[in-house]
Amino acid sequence: MVLPDFRFHQPATLQDALNLLGQHPDAAAMAGGTDLLVEMKKGLCRHHDIISLAKIPELKRITENTDNLFIGACSTHSEVMASRLVREHAPALVKATSKIGSEQIRNTGTIGGNICTAASCCDTAPILLAMNASVEIACDEKIRIVPLRDFFTFNKKTILEKRDLVTRIIVPKPVSGTGACYEKFGLREAGSISVVSVAASIRIQDAVITDALIVIGAVAPTPKISGQAIEILKGRNVREFMEGSPLLEEAGNGAVRDSIPIDDIRGGAQFRRDVLKVLTKRAIRSAIA
């Protein structure tokens, strides 16, 4: 497999990148290129112009204000993992990011690219959804903020239009009493694609679960919020979710009922349901802890 010929552009500002997208109808924006270049090699897509975002400083910054973390879309997975701010306020995101590919992929691939690829097995999307994250999208001179739960439309499909660029991921800082966890099952320890994943975020006040988000991955066309699992958790005392308890079992079953798994080379649908139940229970217990 060889890459087809294309023109390579390396703008230094966001506005230059947006201008180039407007000037070249079949152009593609590239962050790390770990997905795009492979797809081009395989002939799955063709672009005469590639616009690299790697040299735009504002797309690589990780900053904060009182309420939120702001993660530049072109921050590599390794940069996200190393960030003091992310480690302090979103350690579950660090864990999820550490599960992506190999070290070489993490050094090159970006958090924005991972989201925009929109694969159902994407590792960062479930935990970001569980943390109520949003994406900042630039188009021409307009900026809009979209909740991540509204971003995915189908497997490898998003709301992004031709001239849109995701510039930042906005992650609310967790309030006191909140715990989050990401669990993943792959066919090997390193460099594996998710067969099933689960992210949980749980808020506890006076030993009662006041809020929860359970997100299941690789078992539906997009990462999916499990309403049935959440319904079982809210308003309950955390002691009702001890290991082996009936309610913990029912929460796992609720996630399974919300799933739409498929049979593929990595696992059958029933196998995915069985693993999903185990991971959901594990994620809930870890988030509570």
Break the fold down into its secondary structure elements and pairings.
Elements: E1 7-9, H1 14-23, E2 28-30, H2 36-41, E3 49-52, E4 62-64, E5 68-72, H3 77-82, H4 84-89, H5 91-98, H6 103-108, H7 111-117, H8 124-130, E6 134-139, E7 142-147, E8 152-154, E9 157-158, E10 165-172, E11 178-185, E12 196-205, E13 208-217, E14 224-225, H9 227-233, H10 246-258, H11 269-288
Parallel strand pairs: 1-3, 2-3
Antiparallel strand pairs: 4-5, 5-10, 6-7, 6-10, 8-9, 11-12, 12-13, 13-14
Helix pairs in contact: 9-10, 10-11
Radius of gyration: 19 Å
Number of domains: 3
Model regions low in confidence, pLDDT < 50 over at least 5 residues: none
Order of helices and strands: EHEHEEEHHHHHHEEEEEEEEEHHH
CATH class of the largest domain: Alpha Beta
Q: Estimate the global geometry from the Cα principal axes.
A: globular
* Beta-strand residue percentage: 25-35%
N-C termini distance: 48 Å
Q: Going across the biggest sheet, name each strand in turn.
A: 4-5-10-6-7
Per DSSP E runs of 2 or more residues, the count of β-strands stands at 14
Summarize this, please?
The protein has 289 residues and is of the alpha+beta class. It is built from eleven helices and 14 strands.
